[in-house]
Amino acid sequence: MLLSRLARVSQEVAATSSRSRKITLLADLFRDAEADDVPVVIPYLAGRLPQGRIGVGWRTLSRPVAPTDRPTLTVRAVDTLLGRLAKTSGPGSQAERALLVGELLGAATEEEQRFLFGLLTGEVRQGALDAVAVEGLARATGTPSTDVRRAVMLAGSLQTVAEALLADGPAALERFRLTVGRPVLPMLAHSASSVAEAVEKLGAAAVEEKLDGIRVQVHRDGDTVRVHTRTLDDITGRLPEVTAAARALPSERFVLDGEVISFDARGRPRTFQETAGRVGSRSDVATAARDVPVAPVFFDALSVDGRDLLDLPFTERHAELARLVPEPMRVRRTLVSGPEDVQAAQEFLADTLARGHEGVVVKGLDAPYSAGRRGASWLKVKPVHTLDLVVLAAEWGHGRRTDKLSNLHLGARTADGGFTMLGKTFKGLTDTMLAWQTERLRELAVDESGYVVTVRPELVVEVAYDGLQRSPRYPAGITLRFARVVRYREDKRPQEADTVETLLAAHPEVRP
Questions:
Q1: Which of 41, 91, 259, 266 could crosslink 211 through cysteines, CB 3.0-4.6 Å?
Q2: What is the pLDDT, as a whole number, of residue 86?
Q3: Residue 377 pLDDT > 60, yes or no?
Q4: Quick check: 373 pLDDT over 80?
Q5: Which of these is catalytic: 210, 363, 380, 424?
């Protein structure tokens, strides 16, 4: 498949808000694709590189390269060249990368260059594309979308299912079953503003602690234990404690869903960054396990003793979990019968927060396990932190945000009256806000160097965030987690923005 075909569809998908139109565009694309194109086409559509980070920065991309007039690049040829880029390292690698990027962009049309620039800078953002791609794939192959969705859930990979469907047709879906040892995409939760709202929606429910750890799926088949992340990465070798805990359970064949979390000497949860750092450590596991021990806490059972539990109601799955997993290794919970029990749910949330956890998940008792989807029967509730920060700069967007200032550089006040950057966000911005902020920030601009527009620190923006973590990338040594724009505060002066010290006082656990 030519890259120009993919680039055009990507632009059209980004430009339309119509779900049916997106599905039609993707269905037509999949009909034109070969099975071997799929491992590249699907990640590219979602703005991902199969190679991950390839070491190409803005400086390399900012060098102008004249485009070609006729499209000749194929998606597989681009993937091959980016694979070479990813492997380039050592002395002279920077110059080699520049040559390879020049070779790639020089073979691309102007439209293809825009797409590649967005892809390499992480600005191709289609939003919930996988769900739409499932519908498009189903239509392209004449397969019921429910069958495709379940196959993706069980395979843990849209690419794997798409390759099989395009190569062998609908009969290929028979090979995708829940298999111990092969991870499936986890069920995710929607958000609710309060436990009262969640209980009102779900009625009889379980209210469970929401731990700020690392989501894991643990598979055991005899003496073999495998531990996978929510992105299906195998991290078994990094977590000997989880392997040992799984082998101690009274069944030799199961799949469990849960979190890995670390506690300090007082029994309080450590920061997410500490747990994530431990789980991410690939060297000297024994030392890491001694310094930052972790423990699994399970909240669901997908398979026990060879029995597939996915379609059972949560009540029955939890009964299997309780039969298999002792209480200290199960998430704390309370049951409510409906809105009349909302006080009990609120008290449980308050107690959970006092114990140092981030909130609760309210789960409907009758719902099956909707792997790979945000099920309406799981609603997470956690306090929302907000800050008033100042916009220090913004980056030009791509795709639907071409010609709009999108990614905001956020700053807090410092003790000397200046501002220091705490992170970036492009989330939460409506089309109306994008248009307004582009005009306003251009008025405040003091420098436009490449893709970044630096502005006078005068515009205050209210930002919601999930927490703080330490970061050596920023001068204050901290950065915001999952920041998103709530609204602009033109009624506030920059001198009224929150300070770094105020932020650290609210989160003493991350003080550098």
A1: 259
A2: 84
A3: yes
A4: no
A5: 210
